[in-house]
Amino acid sequence: MNINKFSFRVRYGETDQMGVVYHGNYAQYLEIGRVEWLRSKGISYRKLEESGIILPVISLQINFKKSAVYDDLITVETILKKTPSVRIEFDYKIFNENNELLIEANTVLAFLDKKKNRPIKCPEDLLDRLTKS
Predict the structure, then answer these.
(1) Is 113 helix (H, G, I), strand (E, B) or coil?
(2) pTM confidence score
(3) Of 63-67, 80-84, 101-105, where does mean pLDDT reach its minimum?
(4) Contact in structure between 118 and 112 (CB atoms under 8 Å)
(5) What is the pLDDT of residue 131?
């Protein structure tokens, strides 16, 4: 299964006056999960961009279950949903240190040629690395 888990602590600046994580920060947590998922496959997002491929988010869905709070150790679980083509889709779950489900989410990103700003199919060499278990 194409799954990666990455944990980190909620920082004070990510919370509101009640110590609860601001809802907009979860999109950044999902990005951390994606970047670490790619890294686990030996893919540097920076090198991907330098090679002329960018991956803008074209869809984001988050279902909130419970709030994360300041200093929580949270774990982002990132799963490749299906074999990439022109798009790549991920499912996510974020848990706190008590293994309570905080959110379930989904993102869809498009492979774009950076210079032409046009959709492209996922290159075969990249596809091979992305789909390795």
Answers:
(1) strand
(2) 0.93
(3) 80-84
(4) yes
(5) 84
